[in-house]
Design a protein that fits this description.
Uracil-DNA Glycosylase, subunit E; globular; alpha/beta; about 10% strand; about 270 residues; 6 strands; binds iron/sulfur cluster
Length: about 270
């Protein structure tokens, strides 16, 4: 067997393995990530917007054990976020949706805001879009309890509209403190509002997705954290084409590569 035919067989095996996890209707084709992120060195851990040669200073999240991170997140939720009335969204919410998962996760997914199912349960990403996100996480060889999932705003914008700038502003500090405590190795932003707010850009998700970005200096020790923008699962469900699904899967594969994860076995 030639080298080329061996590669083709390996690729076919890999696709079959993925299909068994995602279901045949999820897939593909796999497109290549256009802008792989170089391995992160301490001196490179800086913002693209304010790049310097200095490594970030140690932060709260660097010095906490997983148990201390869990306690810090719980304290933030119980003493502040859960009773928050800093913006009008508190008037129509049923539950605050703080976020969920491993307090010491290497990977954090950030969406825009809770929907109806999340507002009813207090859990992030539990509706149809949540089911798809769960399948995407499983396809990466992880489960939800191994990552952290949260949103830009913690209360549901009525009618599932995008959060208004003043609502994002009011809630911003909670997200930053979550990220400062967790200190993830990689952040995946889901959709336009999460991507544009965290990267502080007006460039849209269609242009940004699939290309590694770095967090600007938005929090203590967060500058330079690798960010992979991808489609929001709700968008994938609305545009359920092989092309859209393939692009999203390509983005997640780049994240797996960055985290050193291997493709799950069939
Ligand atoms: S969205 Fe954020 S800032 Fe607004 S009330 Fe809810 S927790 Fe407070």
């Amino acid at each position: 067997m030639t080298q080329n035919s061996t590669n083709l067989v390996d690729t076919a095996r890999q696709l079959l393995a993925i299909e068994s996890i995602l279901g045949s209707d999820w897939l593909l084709p796999v497109s290549r990530n256009k802008n792989p992120l170089p391995p992160l060195q301490p001196a490179e851990h800086t913002s693209t917007a304010t790049a310097t040669a200095e490594a970030p200073s140690p932060t709260v999240g660097d010095t906490l054990s997983p148990e201390e991170k869990a306690a810090a997140l719980a304290e933030l939720n119980q003493s502040e976020v859960n009773n928050c009335k800093k913006c009008p969204l508190h008037q129509t919410r049923n539950h605050v949706v703080f976020g969920d998962g491993d307090p010491a996760a290497g990977l954090v997914f950030v969406g825009e805001g809770p929907g109806a199912d999340e507002d009813a349960t207090g859990k992030p990403f539990v509706g149809r879009a949540g089911e798809l996100l769960t399948r995407m996480i499983h396809a990466m060889g992880l489960d939800r309890q191994q990552v952290f999932i949260c949103n830009i705003v913690k209360c549901r914008p009525p009618g599932n509209r995008n959060p208004a700038p003043e609502e994002v502003q009011a809630c911003w500090n909670y997200l930053i403190r979550q990220l400062e405590i967790i200190r993830p190795r990689v952040i995946v932003t889901l959709g336009n509002p999460a991507t544009q707010n965290l990267l502080q850009t007006r460039v849209g998700i269609t242009k940004l997705r699939g290309n590694w970005q770095r967090l600007p200096d938005i929090g203590n020790g967060l500058a330079g954290t690798p960010v992979m923008p991808t489609f929001h699962p709700s968008y994938i469900l609305r545009r359920y084409t092989p092309e859209i699904r393939g692009k999203a899967w390509s983005d997640l594969q780049a994240v797996m590569q960055q985290l050193g994860l291997t493709m799950p076995k069939k």
